[in-house]
Write a structure and sequence with these properties.
CATH superfamily of the largest domain: Enolase-like C-terminal domain
Largest sheet: 7 strands, parallel
Strand order of the largest sheet: 5-6-7-8-9-10-11
CATH topology of the largest domain: TIM Barrel
Helix content: 25-40%
Distance between the termini: 23 Å
Strand content: 15-25%
CATH class of the largest domain: Alpha Beta
Low-confidence stretches: none
Shape: globular
Number of domains: 2
Order of helices and strands: EEEHHHEEHEHEHEHEHHEHHEHEEE
CATH architecture of the largest domain: Alpha-Beta Barrel
Mean pLDDT: 93
Structural class: alpha/beta
Number of helices: 12
Length: 381
């Protein structure tokens, strides 16, 4: 069985509410959906969506890369197992595309087709013992009044982990929010904090000393980018575990030539964090994340798989990946489809008791909408 045709659509989908990050405010998500048909009429999908302010490549560079890769993919056989994924798109000269988002899209598409051929879900193709559901965290942000309103909606949904954005208001107000959460959630539910790289070292020490009493699971990106070298010092000073996200893809951290996996392992070796937040779209594909998970399993560093605000295509691929790593990942940051005005998939992903169920059909196991008729999509290849 070989790939006979590849098509690509570009999408531009508004967010229901603007999303504020350390780098920018995201009001719409842009990316590419790749579709491949085989000579025996199977259809596979992948998503390529660099994230502005995080990815090293932009959308135009990704579009040019997949345009060049299309001819290489057409005529390629479907890989029989995960270890053969990369060989399916390496050129005769050994050259292969190096843009992380393009790798993620290509590997998702090939894995989707391979799992369909094998008659299993994508997660079970990666790991026959994959979990059938993935726990996810809820996200809280805003004023105390907004936090109360959000929590009242989320509590009945059974989340076992909540992430609160901090560093927006005064430390005193942030502490009141955290105290309120711990009171309402009790001791059995995790509280995670995301500081979006706003604290200087001394302020971070004071803040973490104050919040330690609330049994915080971890704080994400507590230090400003210009002070990342003091993360080891902060870990030594703090009882709250440190998680890194943006720093893993920040080319000013360490050597500019490092991949996200290289940077993660280097920072882990320097004992600069306890948890890593891995966005597969930024990491460089399924193979890269699977290899990183294997290497981190030999350390004390834990992994959280997180969304880069993809559509249902990329998000479902990330869910399958998280399910295949079920023994090594914490509740994931993958409950994000509701942020987009359109997910591009026909049916919602089932969610219950703070977990998203993994599609059980072959491959990705989802139905994609008619992309030619979708108002947010334009055929480009």
């Amino acid at each position: 069985m070989i790939i006979k045709r590849v098509r690509v659509w570009q999408y531009s989908i508004p967010l229901r509410t603007p999303l504020i990050t350390a780098q920018s405010t995201i009001v719409k998500r842009r990316g590419l959906i790749v579709r491949a048909e085989t000579d025996n009429d199977l259809v596979g999908y992948g998503e390529i969506a660099p994230l502005d302010g995080f990815s090293r490549e932009n959308l135009e560079e990704a579009r040019q890369a997949i345009s060049a890769m299309r001819r290489r993919l057409e005529g390629q056989p479907i890989p029989p197992e995960p270890s053969a994924l990369r060989a399916a798109y390496v050129g005769r000269d050994g050259d292969r595309v190096s843009l992380p988002s393009v790798l993620f899209g290509i590997e998702t598409l090939l894995a989707d087709l391979a799992a369909q051929t094998a008659g299993v879900s994508l997660s079970r193709w990666c790991n026959p013992q994959a979990s059938d559901r993935v726990p996810v965290n809820a996200i809280l942000s805003g004023s105390m009044a907004e936090i109360k309103e959000q929590l009242s909606r989320m509590l009945p949904l059974g989340y076992q982990a909540y992430k609160l954005k901090v560093g927006v208001e005064t430390d005193a107000r942030e502490l009141k929010k955290i105290a309120y959460l711990r009171e309402k959630l009790g001791d059995g539910i995790s509280i995670r904090l995301d500081a979006n790289r706003v604290f200087g070292f001394d302020q971070a020490v004071r803040f973490l000393t104050s919040v330690a009493q609330f049994k915080i699971e971890y704080i994400e990106e507590p230090l400003r980018a210009d002070q990342y070298s003091r993360l080891s010092d902060l870990r030594a000073e703090s009882q709250v575990p440190i998680a890194l996200d943006e720093s893993l893809s920040d080319r000013s951290v360490g050597k500019a030539t490092w991949s996200l996996r290289d940077r993660t392992l280097q920072l882990a070796d320097r004992r600069m964090m306890d948890v890593v937040i891995i966005k597969p779209m930024l990491a460089g594909g399924l193979c890269e994340v699977l290899e990183l998970a294997r290497e981190l399993s030999r350390t004390d560093v834990k992994m959280v798989i997180s969304s880069a605000i993809e559509t249902g295509v990329g998000l479902t691929a990330a869910l399958h990946l998280a399910a295949s790593l079920s023994d090594t990942v914490l509740p994931c940051g993958l409950d994000t489809l509701g942020l987009l005005a359109d997910s591009l998939i026909s049916e919602p992903l089932p969610e219950e008791n703070g977990c998203i169920s993994i599609p059980t059909k072959r491959g990705l196991g989802i139905s994609i909408c008619d992309l030619d008729a979708n108002p947010y999509c334009t055929s480009v290849i």
